[in-house]
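User: Structure please.
Assistant: Input sequence and predicted structure:
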Amino acid sequence: MELHRLAAFTRNPEGGNPAGIALLDAHPDDATMLAVAADIGYSETAFLVPDGPRRHRVRYFAPITEVSFCGHATIAAGVVLAERDGPGPFTIVLANGTEVPVDTQRDPDGAVVATLTSPPPSVDPIDEADLTALLSALRWDRTALDPALPASVAWAGARHPILPAASRPQLASLDYDFDALADLMAQRDWTTVDLVWRQTASRWHARNAFAIGGVVEDPATGAAAAAFGGWLRHHGLVELPATVTIEQGVDLGRPSLISVQIDPGRTGIRVSGHAVPLAPTR
């Protein structure tokens, strides 16, 4: 097992979301991957196995559970593969067989930028009973939500409720019932709860609760960013094509920048970012 540790969606090792990247010849059993993810202790570790030229099968594990799709670990994996095999396109194959294109290129400073293209997203209204339970677990009431923006559940590889906060201070006040939220997320197959605030049409702030993964909060969440891009398009909240910047991790002291590119039609959402090493590989 060739193990890498990186922070994704940042150029600074003190920012971004840490991810483990394990390069293997074959996937070990689930218990082994779960133990490795728990030992690393990051919100997710991606386990990659070659599946052809510049093509890899991947499974993602949080410290206590498997995750269907993880954007920040995919960005980190793209950077690792580009540094090893050279920039260009890669294909990541999820456990369910879904193919996720990952393009990598060097920016003007020579650093690798990775861009994943999510599966075409879907967006549904959130059930009223689920919204009531979710707000209760968050210790929010209805006045905490922006009445001009619709709460929804969006999917772009993983399912995320998207709740628009009424203000930046409201977003900063995150203090939720961990066990209640973890139970609700498990029942509804929600990967993170994406809490967002609109600064401008093209700049948003986000926080992502990840109780189901045994982590209070993600500093950067690429899968949720892709689902969020689908939410923006579905509700007509941006003029297309659009590029939106998400600031995340600020309240955790690990600031992250996520670039989301949204095209017209039923296309996948493109999510881009840098990733930097956190420790020597072993």
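The mean pLDDT is 96.
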